[in-house]
Amino acid sequence: MYTLPELSYSYDALEPHIDATTMEIHHTKHHQGYTNNLNMVLEKYPNLAERPLEKLLFDIDHTSLEELKMTEADKKTLRNNGGGYLNHKLFWEIMNPNNSKNEALSAEIVETFGSLGTMKETFNKNANTRFGSGWSWLVRNADGKLELYSTSNQDSPYMQGHTPLLCLDVWEHAYYLKYQNKRGDYVEAWWNVVKMI
Questions:
Q1: Do 140 and 77 share a structural domain?
Q2: What digits encode the pLDDT tens for the residues 129-175?
Q3: What is the CB-side half-sphere exposure of residue 60 using CA atoms within 13 A?
Q4: Residues 62, 45 share a domain
Q5: How many independent structural domains does the chain possess?
Q6: How confident is the model over 10-64, as pLDDT tens digits?
Q7: Looking at the domain assignment, is residue 11 inside a domain?
Q8: pTM
């Protein structure tokens, strides 16, 4: 059974960039909902529940329903809620105000994209142009290289065999109370709570 990850900081720790009310609702309602639904679907498939969730997300996109022995509806539930669970888990971790700069990652970003500014520009563009709900990502791809892209809904880079390093939630519930429809303002403000690069 998966449990809601505890935050290592208070809900108001990211103020004024991310407000406490949004953080509390996002964590205790949205992430808790993904956790509950993930557990519900995995209870039906104890053979799948034994696999690491990262591998399970890859498997559901690369394995037939017959091999998984699950219904199409349950596969969709697992995809959405497994992705939602892992995406948010990383999201809370990278926004931790106690994080210190990762010099090695920063150097690799500069080597790959030319500068931190260039990387951020592309990352922000991916976040702002994602139609509807989704995420913007910095990942390490299957070849071990850094890559930037966005995904819809709760799709996770693990589904492609990639390892997520940095993510920004652009679902409206992540910013609407403070920023209303101004996603771009939220995206810009978010960099103030990411200390790792």
A1: no
A2: 999 999 999 999 999 999 999 999 999 999 999 999 999 999 999 99
A3: 29
A4: yes
A5: 2
A6: 999 999 999 999 999 999 999 999 999 999 999 999 888 889 999 999 998 888 8
A7: no
A8: 0.95
Q: At what angle do helices 116-129 and 103-113 cross, to 10 degrees?
A: 80
From CA 184, how far away is CA 36, in angstroms rounded? 31
36 contacts 80 by C-beta, under 8 angstroms = no
Structure tokens at 34: 């993904």
Q: How far is CA 174 from CA 44, 125, 153, in A?
A: 31, 17, 13
> Residue 155: left (phi > 0), alpha (psi -120 to 50), or beta?
beta
Rounded distance, CA 191 to CA 56, Å?
31
- Backbone dihedral region for residue 194 (phi beyond 0: left; psi -120 to 50: alpha; all else: beta): beta
